[in-house]
Amino acid sequence: MSCLCVLIFLLLLLHPVNLRFMNHRVPSNCRYQPTEYEHAANCATHALWIIPSILGSSMLHVLSDNQWETISAWIYGFGLTGLFIVSTIFHTISWKKRHLRVVEHCLHMFDRMVIYFFIAASYAPWLNLRELGPWASHMRWLIWIMASVGTIYVFFFHERYKLVELVCYVIMGFFPAVVVLSMPNTDGLSELMAGGVFYCLGTVFFKSDGRIPFAHAIWHLFVATGAGIHYYAIWRYLYRPDTLEGKTSR
Questions:
Q1: Which domain of life does the protein's organism represent (predicted)?
Q2: Mind giving me the DSSP string for 66-94?
Q3: Cα(144)–Cα(200) distance, rounded to whole angstroms?
Q4: Please, where are the H alpha helices in 17-161?
Q5: Is there a contact between 12 and 20 (Cβ–Cβ < 8 Å)?
Q6: Mind listing the pLDDT tens digit for each residue in 215-230?
Q7: Of residues 179 and 87, which shows the higher confidence score?
Q8: Could you give the CA distance from residue 76 to residue 196 in angstroms, rounded to a whole number?
Q9: What are the pLDDT digits (tens) for 163-193?
């Protein structure tokens, strides 16, 4: 479904009327102002996933067999649902309450910050529930330090160096993957890589506002697809009742 929506959006690029769906591109030090259509798409493409993410996170909690599985389910659930909720609130305020500039600015910063914690939370079940080597085990806390550093960066340099911000997201997304790929149990790694591919492809649209109509909404769709693939991998290989391999006793 997500891929079909992306295809429809891309086809709009070939039609002359696509200009009404997109405003002109702005300088790198300014924020792009979406059209009414783009605002609506930005809200809808993440709001639709709030309820599924809450239900999915609750299912992992129910399937938890021990304390570490419960903790990991909570961390992952908060990161997943938090991403969609914060994004939806920010885009709604940006669209409907444009006079609340201070609130909108703070929510925009929060929207960027939560991405770092979403990345960390997405890795938490794998790092907490799979066997790791002596060095690799440090990634369990190192990834949260990376998320905290990213948050501090957004606080001081929000929207100032957009390319640097994008590079930070990509580095944080790939760095823990080195540890995960080295785990003795490789079940689920193909799904992890597939989800990572969607995130990487989506970054093409993340900074394409003003060049591609609905660029940010398309980015949202790639994020939702990548998150869905990663959720499936976590459910199937770490929490499903008949999947016992790879779980470690704490």
A1: Eukaryota
A2: SHHHHHHHHHHHHHHHHHHHHHHHHHHHH
A3: 21
A4: 36-47, 50-63, 67-96, 101-129, 139-157
A5: no
A6: 899 999 999 999 999 9
A7: 87
A8: 16
A9: 788 888 888 888 888 888 788 888 888 999 9
Structure tokens at 225: 């697809």
Q: CA-CA distance, 43 to 47, in Å (whole number)? A: 6
Share of the chain above pLDDT 90, in %: 46
Q: Taking a C-beta distance cutoff of 8 angstroms, is the pair 114, 101 a contact?
A: no
Q: What is the pLDDT of residue 9?
A: 52
| The one-letter amino acid at 101 | R
Both tokens of residue 176?
């823990």
Nearest to 146 by CA among 116, 178, 123: 116
pTM, entire model:
0.84
Burial label for 107, CB within 10 Å (0-12, 13-18, 19+), is: buried
Three-state DSSP class for residue 207: coil
What distances in angstroms separate CA 250 from CA 124, 183, 242, one per listed residue?
15, 17, 20
Q: Is 158 helix (H, G, I), strand (E, B) or coil?
A: coil
Q: How many CB atoms lie within 10 A of CB 89?
A: 16
Highest-confidence range of 38-47, 98-107, 241-250, by mean pLDDT?
A: 38-47
In sequence order, what are the residues at sequence separation of 6 or more whose Cβ sits closer than 8 angstroms to the Cβ of residue 135? none
Phi, psi of 26 (to 5 degrees): -110, 160
